[in-house]
Every structure is written in structure tokens, then in C-alpha cells.
Amino acid sequence: MGTAVHPALGRAADPAGTPVPGRPEPGPNRVLIVDDQVDIRRLCRLALAADGLTCDEAGSGPEAISAAARRAYDLVLLDVDLPGFNGEEVLRRLRRSPPAANLKVVMFSGQAGGDELSRLMVGGADDFLTKPFSVVQLRARVKAALRLKAAQDRTDLLNRTMLGVNAELEDAVRAKAAEVIRARNGLVLALAKLIEHRSAETGAHLMRLQRYCRVLAERAADRPAFAALLDGPFIRTLEDAAPLHDIGKAALPDAVLNKPGPLTPEERAVMQTHTTIGADTLRAVARQSPFAGGFLLTAADIARSHHEKWDGTGYPDRLGGEAIPLAARLVAVADVYDALRSKRVYKPGLPHATAVETMTGRSPGHFDPALLDVFAASAGEFDRIFREFAE
Hints:
Number of helices: 15
Oligomer: single chain
CATH superfamily of the largest domain: Hypothetical protein af1432
Largest sheet: 5 strands, parallel
Strand content: 5-15%
């Protein structure tokens, strides 16, 4: 770690040359360096400051969490071994309540083995460095992580812009002919009800799902990590599109769709195709209906990805983390809660407390940790909705 520090890369307000969405005005990326060794923190700070980054320091787990609560950081350099509580706990808390959208976390350690590093990556780390590391390695990893964040920020901005344009079109139509929107939403429910006649799902389930999604999205919008993503048009589109999440089940054979016992591996593979069938169908309709394209593409994202898991073990694409569309992550929480509470021919419905415990304590890696934290805080509203719209 004796590599000399020199300003080789120059100052860069943003690694990709684009202002970061959500900031009042463009400025240098802000990095939090967390390590209990002062010399390590100083080395990182000098190297990154030479690249135009603004750096703060923390020497323990509690200091890191306190600093993240005060400021929105773009990247956290996080040591695994820390006093107070360790880096893995800091990582868990940062992912549960991110200080900003698309936060990047690069961890480092001199002792962590392959299994531990793999666990950290599954837990939300974006990259890691093994001590001792050189300044060149540090700069490269930080620059790569910030480039990825900038790309994700631009994607978020593009998505918000597209939703905004779609919302403006909808507002124009609503002002001239509100019945068009009502007809669209009626058609959505009519299509979704096709599934009712072929499976155990009911109209009450669809109404509950819509209301769960609205509650979850509205509460998440109060968190800094989601405030810029979850605006009124997005939440309206999410609520209207949610009933189409299982539309692909219309193409499944009855023997698989309504089998009362466990599915065989072959049957499970057939069942999982409802995600791709539904998404492909909705995207095909979107291509022929440009006006409703934004709504239908959101519905397609939900249909395809609502069975993906945060740790990348879901289906059909094994997406992980923020690669899963936000709308699908929201619907996943709502859909699983209702499935746990609902009675089926092959299982009883669970009490509210048991369902919440199953999701928050017994399903590691399934849900977006930040959304799961929002769910836990608003679980009482989910229970109220379930009781209000009982079968």
C-alpha cells in the first residue's frame, strides 16, 4: 500500500460527465470512508480528493450510520472489521434505509475469505478490495462504481421523464374525455378477472393488491432513496397495472394452474412461464397502442419480474438488486403478503403477525431490504386492507 498518491485522473464532478439526478445542482460525488485505521482513511481521502471527490470519514459502525443519516453519499468505502458493530451490519442498515438512490458500497478487508465476501455481495455490496490495496486499485474500483451509479441515475431520470410525459398525455385525455381512462382501467380489471375463473385468485385479491401497492409506494415515497422515483403518476400507474401481474396464467393448462398438491419440476417450469407469456403479450399490445405504451410497459415489467428476488435467485431472468424494476419489487411485497394471508385448497391462511414475521424474518434475500423496511412500518395498514376486502 505504499503507492504514491498523485492526481493522475484529474477532477471529475461526475464519472460519466452527467449531473446526478436528485441534487439541487451539479457537484462532486460525495464519498464516506469507513475504517478504524486512521492511516487507511487518510490514504483513501488523499487519493480520492485528487480525483475531485468530496470525502468524509468515520472510524466505527455507529459513526458511519450517523454520517449517512446526515448526508446523502454517492459511495461508501466500508471496512469489514469495525468497532461498535461490523461492516456487514453497516451494510445491512444502509441497504435497509439508503441515504440516496443507487448508493454504491465498496467493502474492503484484510482477512475476509471467499465465502464471507460472497455473502457480502449477496447482502448488497457492489464491489470489494482486499487489503493491502494500491491507490491505482482504489481509484479504479471507485471510478467503476460511480460510473455505474451515474448510469443508474440517468436511467431513473429517463424513466421519470417517460412517466411524466405519459402522465401529461393522460391528464390531457382526462380533461377532454375522462371516460377513456375509466374504460382502460375497466378493461384491465376485466382481463384480470379472466384469471379468477381459472385459478384460486379472486376479485377481492385484485382489489387488495391494488391498495397494498398504493400504501407501500406512498410510504416508500417518504424515504430519501425513493422520493425522486415514486411520484403521483408512477403510483397511479402501479396501482392500475398491478392486477395484470398474473395475466400470463390465462395460457397455462388447468392441470398445472389448479393442481391442489405440490408441482413436479416439469410442472413448476410450466407454471413459471406465466411471467414471460404475460410480459410478451403486454409488450405486443403496447407496440400497437403507443398512447397507452407507458402504462402497458409498466404492466409488462410487473408481469415478467414480480417473482424475481433481491438476491438473484428468482425467475424468469434471475435479476438481482436494483436491476429488478421498481414496480415489480413493490408488487412482489404486496403479492406475497396477500398469498400468505389467503386460504387456498392446499394451505390455510396465515394470521397477520405470522405473515409479517415470515416476510421480515424468514425470507432473507427475497425482497428489496428498503421496501421490506417500509412494509414492516406500514404492516398495520396491510392488515386493515385485508380485513376490509375479505373474501
